[in-house]
Design brief:
Strand content: 35-45%
Structural class: mainly beta
Distance between the termini: 55 Å
Helix content: under 10%
Largest sheet: 7 strands, antiparallel
Number of strands: 60
């Protein structure tokens, strides 16, 4: 979901990351300029079965709204005691939302004009003021969840008139944290950003002696709030801004000894805090005058906007090291910069993770404010064409995502009374976890998915894990999981979709599936048909399930930050641990009788009939009947990522053809006579997809040579193979 502009107004849009799956919702009661015409960020936040957000109504009030993802289910929440201009009045109302359990906290304006802390559970009756610490209002800002989502830290005003102070929200209520610097005028710099480091929060603050802001960390107590003083900061102070979490560290913009605003990292101590010397950065600073919008692409990398040596504000990526920080070249971007117009930075990119890619706001070559998508590579960064957008661009804002991670109906879960089908479980039942603990079921979510009608069917079609795929009894019979459901392998959790090998772990062609998920008292490993898999992790996204309940669906592409704080095991999405898990699955597949072959089982067909062919395995030749109109090269199919653990190429590949002849005349591999079933030409060959066609042009003989074949599953046909990279078995030239 995101803010977007049509030809007339700024409204509520939804996307699945494709052009066809992007559209605007027609919402009744919106302001004359649209829900977001007033310019206040929507701050979409999942809460139970709904999403809450900030928007303008027809009366011109900026208020609290809710949506279930449909036009009919989108409306304003009446808030009693709110200001006549709205509880989220544009005069303030930009502090965002933070959630503990089923309650969201936010800054709001009362009828008396004071800005205080409010809470909501998504209804009018449950939207109430919570606290005002000063006579003019608490003015809460930077509300940030930490400590496994149990607490919220924020900046607010008390009656000391010294500046913003630290406040803590727990289940017990709201309290101010005593000045951690006795004798000094401690003040939080609320615009610098707060970032969770697990059980602590990093933020910017200053005292009466500071010329600029300093870096602090706090565990929610006065004694546990300390100043971080790196030796490389500028003489005026580090002045940290845009503080953002990356696992156990945080990234931020700060000033070093060069007096330029650059990229910094911190682990919460002085020794772990340093500025990164980034090659290609602008001489005035990589982040000088830039809103970087640091956003995690995966567990080890963050995307951001930065300025290069040419003064172009473009797309950058970092893994928290200098050598791992670089600019991504983007084809089709505006000449003045993907994130700049004539040298003036546009609003932040609004990066949002969706299905392994990041969507964002950027300028195309024509200067249009467009929706883009990236996988963190130059080749994988493209613009998404949006129908119905404003002529100046859809200008997407506040992109927000949700995914499913579930069991298919019929999957049996281990309980204290034996295995029980997931759909027959009830709240209060006790399931048996991997450690042997009996854990109570807290919530059950379900949803029916029509895979065939989904814009990206492969993201929702279930993955079938064959009996004993991970070892004897794991699972003890076939089990269906959604692609995002994580299984416990070698002490870590990995989405099953990243372990597909096409044999023992393969995507099903099922068109309709009913998915279920099980929430326990905490995130844990339960046993599904004997296979250790994750329970539901509540990141505030339960709305993907039809029954909703006291929560919604799973982590937005694993809501990486929430996983760091509340996950019961490390999350593996890439790297050596993933390669090792894939390799072990292949060894087990071989033990179960699945064999890999380099024989493509190649056949040449003319109008559907097999032709006799001469071959030595590399050079192939066949006589064509005079009436032939449709020639096909048919073979087994493989996917490199399925049979080569270190590969990520998931294309369906047949054979790699290096040369073609018709009646002895060489034929270009880029010829339009090569029809359906061919991948794009590569420098020395062109892959088929296992069923490639070509026009015979009245030729009487076809000949071709193979550059290489693949690593195919022997027991699979042309529609179910795997693939490895383009280096599986290189054959010699004929």
């Amino acid at each position: 979901m995101f803010e977007g502009s049509d030809p007339a107004t700024s409204g509520l849009w939804e996307t699945d990351g494709t052009a066809a799956g992007t559209s605007e919702l027609a919402v009744a009661g919106a302001g004359s300029s649209g829900l977001f015409g007033g310019g206040i960020p929507a701050d979409f936040t999942q809460l139970g079965t709904i999403v809450i957000f900030t928007a303008d109504d027809a009366a011109g009030k900026t208020g609290l709204w809710r949506t279930d993802g449909t036009a009919a289910g989108t409306h304003e929440i009446t808030v009693n005691g709110a200001n006549s201009y709205g509880v989220r009045n544009a005069a303030y109302g930009q502090g965002g939302y933070a959630v503990i359990g089923m309650t969201a906290y936010f800054d709001g304006e009362s009828a008396a004009g004071t800005y205080g802390l409010w809470s909501t559970q998504g209804t009018s009756a449950a939207s109430v003021p919570v606290a005002n610490a000063s006579s003019s209002g608490l003015s809460p800002a930077e509300l940030t969840s930490f400590d496994n989502g149990a607490d919220i830290l924020f900046a607010g005003a008390d009656n000391s008139n010294i500046g913003e102070q630290l406040f803590l929200i727990t289940e017990a209520g709201v309290s101010e944290i005593a000045n951690p610097l006795p004798g000094k005028a401690f003040s939080v710099n609320q615009s610098d950003g707060f970032a969770s480091l697990g059980n602590e929060v990093a933020f910017g603050a200053s005292d009466s002696t500071d010329l600029a802001g300093a870096l602090f960390v706090s565990n929610g107590t006065s004694g546990g709030t300390t100043r971080i003083s790196p030796t490389t900061s500028s003489g005026l102070g580090i002045d940290p801004t845009f503080i953002t979490s990356l696992g156990s560290i945080a990234l931020f913009a700060g000033y070093g000894t060069k007096q330029t605003e650059d990229l910094w990292i911190t682990g919460g101590t002085a020794a772990s805090t340093a500025d990164l010397a980034v090659a290609g950065a602008n001489a005035n600073g990589l982040l000088s005058g830039v809103e970087p919008d640091f956003t995690r692409l995966n567990t080890t990398q963050i995307l951001f906007a930065g300025e290069d040596t040419a003064g172009i504000v473009g797309l950058w990526i970092t893994n928290g090291t200098a050598s791992g920080t670089y600019e991504i070249s983007v084809t089709g971007a505006y000449s003045g910069g993907l994130f700049a117009v004539d040298g003036v930075s546009v609003p932040e990119p609004r990066f949002t993770l969706l299905n392994g890619r990041v969507l964002f706001y950027g300028l195309n070559a024509a200067g249009v404010e467009a929706l883009w998508s990236t996988d963190g590579t130059s080749a994988g960064t493209t613009q998404i064409a949006v129908a119905g957008a404003n002529a100046n661009g859809v200008a997407p804002g506040d992109l927000t995502t949700v995914t499913l991670a579930c069991f298919a109906a019929g999957t049996r879960i281990a309980t204290e009374h034996g295995d029980v089908a997931v759909e027959r479980l009830s709240v209060g039942d006790r399931v048996r976890t991997l450690s042997g603990r009996l854990a109570p079921v807290r919530w059950l979510g379900w949803r029916r998915v029509a895979c065939r009608r989904h814009a990206r069917p492969d993201t929702v079609r279930p993955v079938r894990v064959a009996a004993h795929a991970f070892g004897l009894g794991r699972p003890h019979r076939d089990v269906l999981l959604s692609p995002d459901h994580a299984v416990f392998v070698d002490g870590a959790l990995t989405p099953i979709g990243r372990l597909v090998n096409g044999a023992t772990v393969a995507q099903s062609s099922r068109e309709v599936v009913v998915y279920w998920h099980v929430e326990l008292d905490r995130h844990d490993i339960l046993l599904a048909e004997g296979l250790p898999t994750e329970s539901y992790l509540d990141t505030g996204n339960r709305g993907a399930f039809a029954n909703g309940g006291p929560a919604t669906h799973l982590h937005p592409d694993f809501a990486l930050r929430a996983w760091d704080e509340a996950g019961c095991a490390p999350l593996v999405l890439e790297g050596p641990a993933l390669v090792t898990a894939r390799r072990k699955l292949l060894v087990q597949a071989a033990a179960l009788g699945h064999a890999i072959t380099t024989d493509p089982g190649l056949r040449i067909l003319a109008d559907g009939a097999d032709l006799a062919a001469e071959t030595d395995g590399v050079f192939w030749r066949a006589r064509l009947p005079p009436t032939a109109r449709d020639i096909r090269i048919v073979s087994r199919v493989w996917r490199p990522a399925h049979t080569s653990p270190g590969e990520n190429d998931t294309r369906a590949l047949g054979v790699a053809v290096s040369a073609l002849w018709l009646n002895g005349r060489a034929m270009s591999l880029a010829s339009p006579a090569l029809g359906a079933g061919w991948h794009g030409p590569e420098p020395d060959w062109r892959w088929t997809n296992g069923d490639a066609t070509l026009a015979p042009a009245d030729a009487s003989e076809l000949a071709f040579t193979l550059a290489m074949t693949g690593r195919y599953w022997r027991d699979q046909g042309a529609d179910g193979g795997q693939r490895r990279r383009h280096r599986s078995r290189r054959t010699s030239a004929a």
